[in-house]
Each structure stands twice: as C-alpha cells, then as structure tokens.
Specification:
Blueprint (H helix, E strand, L loop, with lengths): L14 E4 L8 H5 L7 H15 L5 E4 L9 H10 L3 E5 L8 H7 L3 E3 L2 E5 L2 E5 L15 E4 L13 E3 L10 E2 H8 L2 H11 L14
Parallel strand pairs: 1-2, 2-3, 3-4, 6-7, 7-8
Antiparallel strand pairs: 1-9, 5-6
Length: about 210
C-alpha cells in the first residue's frame, strides 16, 4: 500500500475529493442520466466546474475512473488543464501503470489510500467497503464507483463521485459537514442491532 507520504500534511482549506468523471465516456451519459449531449460537452463542464472551486495550491484526490479509453495525449491535455495537485486512487477503468499517470500530470497513483486530516483517519478506495480500518474508532470512508446509486448503513461513508455533487470536486469542509455526526448515528445503529462488539454480523437493513 502506498500512502503518498506528505498527504498527512494536507491543508483542510485546500483539499478536495472527487470520483468517476469518466472523461471521454459517451456511454456514461445515458447510464447515469448525465445532462450532457456528448462526451466533449461533459468533459468541458467537469473541467470548468473543477477549476471554479480548486485553487492552484489545492490538492484533489480522485477516487477512480478518471478516463474512459482516451489516447494518452488527450488524457494528458485534460490532466494539465485541471488546477491543483492531483492524486489518483485507481478504479476499475484506470488501466495505465502508475508511471503513466505520473507522466500525465498526477503526483502519484495507488489502489488504496489512508491518511489523517485534522486528526481524522480517512480511508479512500474506489469501491465502497463494508467495514474499513478504524471503523470502531471514528474513521471515515470515502469512495466512488456506484455513481450515487449505492446505500451504506454507516453515516461515516460518502460517495464523492461527480454524479452526487454537481460534477464538481467536494471540499474537505463539506465532507466534514456531511459526516460530522456519523459516529453517534452509527453507534445508535450498532446498539439497536446488537452489534456491541467488533466484527459481529451486519445485515443491510437501515
């Protein structure tokens, strides 16, 4: 597991998360009912929205499915237009080797990521995880992949994909606002279900 090292020194003000832009993917427009006529229009809208909120000094963690096919030169043009330092947690459509993503303009790329921000352990993967590292100690889990169509019992899980957030990266402060009361709500759920010790069976009823 690569930890990207300096990510534990992130600025809360300038840290953003996103997932599943699917640049160049015509089919995703119909699959996810995206409001675009074609992939070019979608690409430009996502770039415009990204650059409207991310400063040059920002850091964006992309939780997978950055590109859909697209030749390397086209992928690099997209990446270089996007503001901030970019880190990729690869998804099922991210097929290039790590070195290729570095050459495209990413700071680093990995399959899974954990880091601390303001004392909070944040667990990032492309896919949603049922029970993640630090689950019983208040950690949070961010993911993509399900395009807003998934439903997790935990209130400390957030799909940061573009389909959930107006095709725009999500600020850390917004993540914090959405998940701030999650541990209390999860503890209530665990007590109600009798899950008072670790690794007891979960069911998927709310």
């Amino acid at each position: 597991m690569r930890d990207f090292g300096k990510l534990n020194d992130l600025s809360p003000k300038n840290t953003f998360f996103t997932a599943d832009p699917h640049f160049f993917h015509e089919g995703i427009i119909g699959h996810c009912a995206r409001p675009f006529a074609n992939a070019q229009e979608m690409n430009e809208a996502i770039i415009r929205n990204w650059n409207a909120v991310v400063p040059a000094a920002g850091t964006v963690i992309v939780l997978g499915d950055m590109f859909w096919k697209g030749d390397l030169e086209a992928c690099e043009r997209i990446t270089r237009r996007l503001k901030g330092k970019k880190y990729l947690v690869a998804g099922n459509h991210d097929k290039f080797p790590r070195e290729t993503y570095l050459n495209l303009g990413f700071e680093d790329a990995t399959d899974y990521l954990e880091f601390h921000l303001e004392g909070r352990l944040v667990v990032c993967s492309h896919y949603p995880i049922l029970e993640w590292n630090g689950f019983y100690r208040g950690s949070w889990h961010l993911h993509g992949h399900v395009h807003g169509k998934g439903s997790h019992f935990s209130k400390r899980v957030l799909d940061v994909g573009v389909d959930c957030h107006n095709f725009t990266p999500l600020r850390w402060r917004e993540v914090e606002r959405k998940l701030a009361d999650g541990m209390r709500l999860d503890e209530e759920t665990m007590r109600a279900k009798g899950n008072t010790s670790r690794h007891m069976p979960w069911d998927f009823d709310k």
